[in-house]
Amino acid sequence: MGSNDCNRAEEAYEKWPFAMLLSEDDDEVFITDSSTEHEDTEHKNIPTNEAVLNLLSGLVGSGLLALPYVISKGGVLAIIALVLVPFICSYTGKILIECMYERSYYRRKIRVHSSYREIGEACWPGKAGILTVTIQIIQLALSASSCIVLSASLLSHVLNFLDRSEREWIIIATILALPTVFVRSLAHVSWINILSITTLFSPIVVITGYGFFNNQPWDFKVLPLWNLEGVPLAISIITHSYVAHGALPVIEEGMDDKTKFDTMLKVTYVLCAVLRTTFAINGFFSYYGNINEIISNSLPPGILITVNTLLLIYSLLCYPFAGIALIHTVETSLFSNYTFVVSDRRWYIISRISLIVSSLFFALLIPRYAVLIAISGNLKSILGLILPCLFHLKLRAGELSIVTIIVDFFILALGIAIVVIGTVASVFQMIVMY
């Protein structure tokens, strides 16, 4: 490295008090917050394969079980969205992480932002950062709550001989989820996610196989082109299923080789797109006429108990992923200047209790699973479609090609449409529910 390189690198280090990590080919510089290096148990770097598992668990998530119901509501348009949305989300995830870095000469990249809030502040100083992180926190809280509502529904069908109300089952599910939140890092969560994905595999095979071999032959005439009333709900649920952008900065920061982030993102989204589309189409045609918003509840009583028990375990194991991401977001966005908070035992306990209380609150407020994840999907559209494009257009204005600008504006318009129409539809569903 020449003297000019050294001088500029030193200036960068003085401006951003981070630890500089060179990639093997010395083409890029990655900067991560060194203030957390002393926290051995809080923030451990993870290899690419574990990052894939972390993101895969967050993406596959509990929303998978609602996809046959989504097709029944959205028809052919929902199937198109199942294929199109993951490609869009992969692109916006990539540009979101790009906005966390500044490019220097010789293709070097310096990480100057560590959270959604910092990117928002860089674009529009003042209230933009607070607004951004507020949306992110609410969305992650809703995602965590969806695991609780799903668990409650599964549990109520397993123990249907017990006379309990919908909200009582939610309280019971929250108590069951309580021990899972006392994990300290993504490194720990990744191993829980390995177990959760393993647990998910058997029920999905059973649901798919039973529906394919034991129900009526497929009749393509029952597939509607689209349903004006059901499309907004369907698109919002699909968006919920594919957007995990709130966790991407956490995952990218925790990777031991950040140059592989784009590859990790593409591999994960391709796997999810294939799995989701196949499962949704098979579930719709196989269970047509008896499609519950949680498809496992459409199974006959005997097999339902076994499948729902495994799915209950899976749902509870997925809960820490959204929970730890939420806590990490609060720590980095609201307490970034108070590093002592992260290692403080009182904060550790308070943050976990607050997570459980917020999850219970949203679950009791919106106890219907499909409506809850649709509302979450509307917020995720802001985080996964609208904000990344706005950030990209603002921070990379002089570097973007005409084609990239057109793509960004198209996704931006699409995201706004999903949020506006989806919010109106969700409000209507809540009015009907109450």
UniProtKB/TrEMBL annotation:
Record domain Amino acid transporter transmembrane: where: 48-427
Membrane among keywords: yes
Keyword hit for Transport: yes
Subcellular location: Cytoplasmic vesicle membrane
Pfam families in the record: Aa_trans
TM stretches of this protein: 51-71, 77-101, 137-157, 169-187, 194-213, 233-251, 263-285, 305-327, 347-366, 372-393, 405-432
One MF term in the entry's GO annotations: L-amino acid transmembrane transporter activity
Major location (coarse): membrane
Keywords per UniProt: Cytoplasmic vesicle, Membrane, Neurotransmitter transport, Transmembrane, Transmembrane helix, Transport
GO cellular component terms, A-Z: cytoplasmic vesicle membrane; vacuolar membrane
GO BP term, example: neurotransmitter transport
InterPro entries according to UniProt: AA_transpt_TM
Recorded topology in the membrane: Multi-pass membrane protein
UniProt similarity note: Belongs to the amino acid/polyamine transporter 2 family.
Annotated protein name in UniProt: Vesicular inhibitory amino acid transporter-like
